[in-house]
Each structure stands twice: as C-alpha cells, then as structure tokens.
C-alpha cells in the first residue's frame, strides 16, 4: 500500500513532524542534552564533547548516533522488502516506529525525574527513540514528499524564503505554490518542540511524553489505509 497523496499526505507528514519536535524536546531536556532525531546537531555535540567544551555528553551522543544508523538500516530492509512483495509498507513502518517509541517510554519509566534515571535505563530510552527516528528518515525518504522530511527543516526554511517569498528562480521553487507546505513543515517542528517543552515544564514524566508520541504515530498509521483508499477512489 502506497502512502496517500496531496493534502492527505501533507497532514500525515505534518503530524509526524510535530512528533519529531516533541521527541527531541524530551530527549534534549530530560535525557542529557542529546537529540534522538536531529542527528546533525548530535554530530556537532559529539565534536564539542570530544573537545571537552560546553559540558556536552559523549557517550549519550554516540548511543544516539549509532542507534539511528541501525534504525535506518533496519528501516531500509523492512520497507524495501515489504514494497517488493506488494505489502503495505507505509503504515507498517509507522506501526513499528510507534512500537519502538512505546518501548522507549517503558525504558524511561520512573517515579522520579528522568534526569535521575540510571545510565543503562537512560541509554536504552535514547537508543530506542533513535532507532525509531532512523526508521522514520527512511520512511520519509521513500515517501519523497517535497519539503516534508519530518526531521530536518533547514531546506524547508531556505526554500520558504529564497524560493517562495523573495526569489524568482524556479530552481529554488519559486512559483510552485509550495508556501503552505513549507510553512506547515517549519511550523510543525516549532509546534512540536514547544509542545514537548511545555509538557516537560508542567512536570510530565518523560515516559508519558514519549508514549504520547507513540500513540500519535500509531493513530496516524491506522488513518493511512483510509486516506490511501480515498485517494484511489478519487482517481
């Protein structure tokens, strides 16, 4: 089963982008200044940490980077295999992601603040979240929705300004009527980070924040077949 298209696909990808913001807020604010989705930031943090500057962790960053790569490899194998057999790879990938996030929520479960988790428990939560986000990146690459990577917004912001607002060069996307899509993508990441930080600020346990993300991804997966069916019916 292929993913939906048009407005339905945009809604799905925007929802997933919000989830990314929530997860990175939870990991960065409570699990030791490490991202589980934004691996570009982790590469920089790793460099800073190795240099001994900023008090940034090395071990947690290495765990996240390594787990992310494992997730990408597993996601590529799973989704390509399902697609080759004509199976519904898109909703299955989202359900696997949701299961991994639920596992991360279980690993981070504690009666006290997440900052007080034992190292093994904290690294397990980071690893499971990063594996899920590695799979997500493969999923987004297979979908290939313009400006909707769900984990990185640099290109979307650049295209929003240079191609859709100020420019006149069609190679930058000018004239493609993509402003709502690009704006939605950037806004969704900001909204997800804000939501995650707000929940953490209210004293919500990290495990509950991650579980909320897992439930959201699972709910999105169950919506996909209906959206895809609607697309085929319209066609």
Describe this structure in words.
The chain has a single domain (6-225), classed as Growth Hormone, Chain: A, CATH 1.20.1250. It contains 8 helices and no strands. It has helices at residues 6-30, 39-50, 59-84, 89-107, 119-143, 154-163, 179-201, 206-234. The radius of gyration is 18 Å and the shape is globular. The relative contact order is 0.20. The model has no long low-confidence stretch (mean pLDDT 85).
CATH class: Mainly Alpha
User: Into which percent range does the helicity of residues fall?
Assistant: over 70%
Q: How many domains would you count in the coordinates?
A: 1
Rounded to the nearest angstrom, the distance between the terminal CA atoms is 15 Å
* Structure classification: mainly alpha
Number of strands: 0
Secondary-structure element order, N to C: HHHHHHHH
Instruction: Tell me the CATH architecture.
Output: Up-down Bundle
Structural shape:
globular
Sheet with the most strands, sense and barrel status: none
Number of helices: 8
Radius of gyration: 18 Å
Sequence stretches where pLDDT stays below 50 over 5 or more residues: none
Mean pLDDT: 85
Write the SSE topology.
Blueprint: H1 6-30, H2 39-50, H3 59-84, H4 89-107, H5 119-143, H6 154-163, H7 179-201, H8 206-234
Helix pairs in contact: 1-5, 1-7, 1-8, 2-3, 3-4, 3-5, 4-5, 4-8, 6-7
